[in-house]
Write a structure and sequence with these properties.
579 residues, alpha+beta, Rossmann fold, six-stranded antiparallel beta sheet, six-stranded mixed beta sheet, 20 helices, 17 strands, 57% helix, 18% strand, elongated
Length: 579
C-alpha cells in the first residue's frame, strides 16, 4: 500500500504531501490545479521516463518520495532487498530526483535509501501499483493488448501454459533456423568441404613437422658455404695444432713449452703449482678443440644433391605458408582446424536427420501446448464476458455485452488444431479481439467503432474493474477513467470502485462528485498564488467541494443539499455491501 507521496519542485507543485490510507481515496480539484502532477510524480516512482521540463521554474531539481508498506516476506520486498535496499520494518521508501535543464531526461533513483537503477523501480512497480488511465483505454484497442488482457484474466494456469508454450516455441524456432541453414546452404557447405579436402591433401603430401622450416634454412646455409667452412676449420686447426709440414710453433706446442718450464719448480710454491694446473687444463681444452676442428673439416664435404633437396623442400613448405598460414606451425594448426570442420561438414546428412526428428518432436509439442493454451483462453473468454456483463449492467448498460472472440487464422503451413491447419506464433495459435454488442439487435463490432464516448468509457471501466479484481498488486490508480460518464451511471462507477476498495487500496482522480462521494478519504488539489496544495477535506469542507463539483458553486444551498444526498447514498451502499 502507498502510505505517503511527497513532491517538491515538480510542475506547479512547490511542496505537497499526500497522506494515504487503505480503501478508496478520491483526488479532486479544479482543472489545471495540478492533479496531473501527482500522477506524474507517482509515475517517476514507478520507473517512468524523467522530463527536465517538469521541474518547477526556479528549482534546481524535482524530488519525489514515496513510502510503501510491503510484506517483508513478499515478492516486492525480496526484489528490493536483492537490489540493495534497506527496509524499515514494513516500510519501503522509493525516491527519484530529476535535475533541471538536463534535456536527456537523466535522473537519480533510490530504493530504501540506496542508489538503484530506474529499471529496478520499473520492475518493482509490477508488484506495487497498477495504473489504469485514458492511455490504457487507447492501448486496449490494440489486438496484442487485448490478448494480454485475456491471458491475465485467465489466471495462473494460463500464465503457466503460456510460459511453457514460449519455451517450446523458442526452441522450435532455433531448431528450424539451424535446419534451414544446414539445408539451404548445403551446396555452399559441400563446396567448402571440397576446398578443405584439397587443402588437407596438399598439406598431407608435404607432411611438414613443427620447426622443420628453421632446420632446413640452417642446412641450406651450411651446404651453400662448404668451402668457406672447411677453410675456416682447417685454418683454426693449423693455428692450434700446426700443419703436418709446418715449421712454426703452434698453440699447443707453445703451451707444452710453458708446462715444461713450470715443471722444474713443481712443489716449491703452491701458487705457482696452481697456475701449472690451470695451464694443463687449457692444454687439454685446446687439444679437444683442435681434434674437433679436424673432424669437422674432414666431415664437411660438398653435397650438391643434398643442397638441392633441401632447397626444394623449402620451396614446398613455402607453397603451404603462402596459402594457409604465415609459418609451418600455423599450417599445422590450420590442418587440425580444417580436419575438425570437415568432420562437421561431412556430418550434414546425419545432422539433417537429427534436426528433422527434433523439429518433428517440437512441432508436436508446440501443437499440444498451443491447443491447451487455446482451450484455457476460450474458457476464460466466456468467464470474462459474463463478468463484464455484470459490470455493464451496474453501469447503466444492461443491454450491452462484451464479446471476447478467440479465433485461429487458417494457414496450410501451420499446425493442426482440432482438425484444421492454423497459423501459430510466439503468442500461441489464437487471435483475440474484444467486440461490443451495443444492444441485442446490433452485431458485434470492434471497440473503437462499436461504442460512443460515454459507452466506451463505461466499458473500459468495467473491463478494468474486472481485471483489477484479479490483479495481485495492492494499489490501483484510476486516472479519470470515468470521463464521459454522468448521472446514475456515475453513481454506479463510484459504487464499483468502492467495492474494489474493499480488497485493495484505490486512488481515483475524478471530476465526478458521484464518484468522489463513495471515497473513504477525499483529497482536494488547489492552486493559489502560483503554487499547489493538497488538503484532505471532511465534514463541511467536503460538502463544499462536492457542491463545487456539482454546480461550480461551493456555497450553494442546493448544491450542498445534493452533496449530502450523494454522501448518504454512498454510505448506505457501502453499508449494504459490507453486510
Amino acid at each position: 500500500m502507498l502510505e505517503e507521496l511527497r513532491l517538491r519542485g515538480l510542475g506547479v507543485i512547490e511542496d505537497a504531501t499526500l497522506e494515504l490510507g487503505p480503501g478508496f481515496t478520491a483526488i479532486t480539484g479544479e482543472t489545471g490545479a495540478g492533479k496531473t502532477m501527482l500522477l506524474t510524480g507517482l509515475g517517476l516512482l514507478l520507473g517512468g521516463r524523467a522530463d527536465a521540463a517538469a521541474v518547477r521554474r526556479g528549482h534546481e531539481r524535482a524530488d519525489v518520495d514515496g513510502r510503501f508498506r510491503v510484506d517483508p516476506s513478499g515478492r516486492a520486498a525480496r526484489r528490493a532487498v536483492e537490489a540493495g535496499a534497506d527496509l524499515d520494518g514494513e516500510a519501503l521508501v522509493v525516491s527519484r530526483v530529476v535535475a533541471a535543464g538536463d534535456a536527456s531526461g537523466r535522473s537519480r533513483s533510490f530504493l530504501g535509501g540506496r542508489p538503484a537503477p530506474v529499471s529496478v523501480l520499473a520492475d518493482l512497480a509490477e508488484d506495487l501499483v497498477a495504473v489504469h488511465g485514458q492511455a490504457d483505454q487507447r492501448g486496449l484497442l490494440r489486438p496484442a493488448v487485448q490478448r494480454r488482457v485475456l491471458d491475465r484474466y485467465a489466471g495462473p494456469d494460463a500464465a503457466e501454459a503460456l510460459t511453457a508454450y514460449h519455451a517450446v516455441f523458442a526452441e522450435l524456432a532455433a531448431v528450424r533456423a539451424e535446419l534451414a541453414e544446414v539445408t539451404t546452404r548445403r551446396r555452399e557447405r559441400m563446396q567448402e568441404a571440397d576446398l578443405l579436402r584439397l587443402g588437407l591433401a596438399e598439406v598431407g603430401a608435404v607432411a611438414p613437422f613443427a620447426g622443420e622450416e628453421r632446420e632446413l634454412r640452417q642446412l641450406v646455409e651450411r651446404l651453400s658455404h662448404v668451402d668457406l667452412l672447411t677453410r675456416a676449420a682447417s685454418g683454426a686447426h693449423d693455428v692450434l695444432a700446426g700443419a703436418d709440414d709446418a715449421t712454426a710453433l703452434d698453440a699447443l706446442g707453445l703451451l707444452g713449452g710453458a708446462r715444461r718450464a713450470l715443471e722444474e719448480a713443481h712443489g716449491r710454491d703452491p701458487a705457482l703449482d696452481e697456475l701449472a694446473v690451470r695451464l694443463s687444463e687449457a692444454t687439454y681444452l685446446l687439444a679437444d678443440v683442435a681434434a674437433d676442428l679436424a673432424s669437422y673439416a674432414a666431415a664437411t664435404e660438398a653435397d650438391p644433391s643434398g643442397l638441392e633437396r633441401a632447397q626444394q623442400r623449402l620451396a614446398d613448405l613455402g607453397g603451404l605458408t603462402r596459402k594457409y598460414a604465415p609459418d609451418i606451425d600455423g599450417v599445422i594448426a590450420w590442418a587440425a582446424a580444417a580436419t575438425a570442420r570437415l568432420a562437421e561438414l561431412d556430418g550434414d546428412d546425419e545432422r539433417v536427420e537429427q534436426l528433422s526428428a527434433r523439429h518433428a518432436g517440437l512441432l508436436a509439442d508446440v501443437t499440444a501446448k498451443g491447443a491447451s493454451l487455446s482451450a484455457l483462453r476460450t474458457a476464460a473468454a466466456q468467464r470474462l464476458e459474463r463478468a463484464v456483463a455484470g459490470e455493464l449492467a451496474a453501469l447503466a448498460m444492461p443491454q450491452a455485452r462484451l464479446v471476447v472472440a478467440v479465433e485461429q487464422r487458417p494457414d496450410e503451413r501451420g499446425i493442426d488444431i482440432g482438425g484444421r491447419r492454423v497459423a501459430f506464433g510466439s503468442h500461441g495459435v489464437d487471435e483475440v479481439e474484444l467486440l461490443l454488442v451495443a444492444h441485442p439487435d446490433a452485431p458485434p463490432r470492434p471497440l473503437h467503432r462499436g461504442a460512443s464516448g460515454g459507452e466506451l468509457s463505461r466499458l473500459m471501466l468495467a473491463i478494468e474493474v474486472v481485471l483489477a479484481g484479479d490483479d495481485p498488486v495492492p494499489t490501483f490508480v484510476f486516472d479519470e477513467v470515468d470521463a464521459g460518464v454522468g448521472g446514475a451511471a456515475a453513481v454506479e462507477v463510484g459504487r464499483r470502485l468502492a467495492m474494489l476498495a474493499r480488497s485493495a487500496q484505490v486512488l481515483v482522480v475524478t471530476h465526478l462528485p458521484q464518484v468522489a462521494a463513495f471515497a473513504d478519504a477525499h483529497l482536494v488539489v488547489a492552486r493559489a498564488e502560483n503554487t499547489t496544495t493538497v488538503v484532505r477535506v471532511d465534514g463541511e469542507a467536503r460538502l463544499a467541494e462536492l457542491s463545487r463539483m456539482l454546480g461550480g458553486m461551493a456555497d450553494s444551498d442546493l448544491g450542498r443539499g445534493h452533496a449530502q444526498e450523494l454522501l448518504a447514498v454512498a454510505a448506505d451502499s457501502k453499508a449494504a455491501a459490507a453486510r
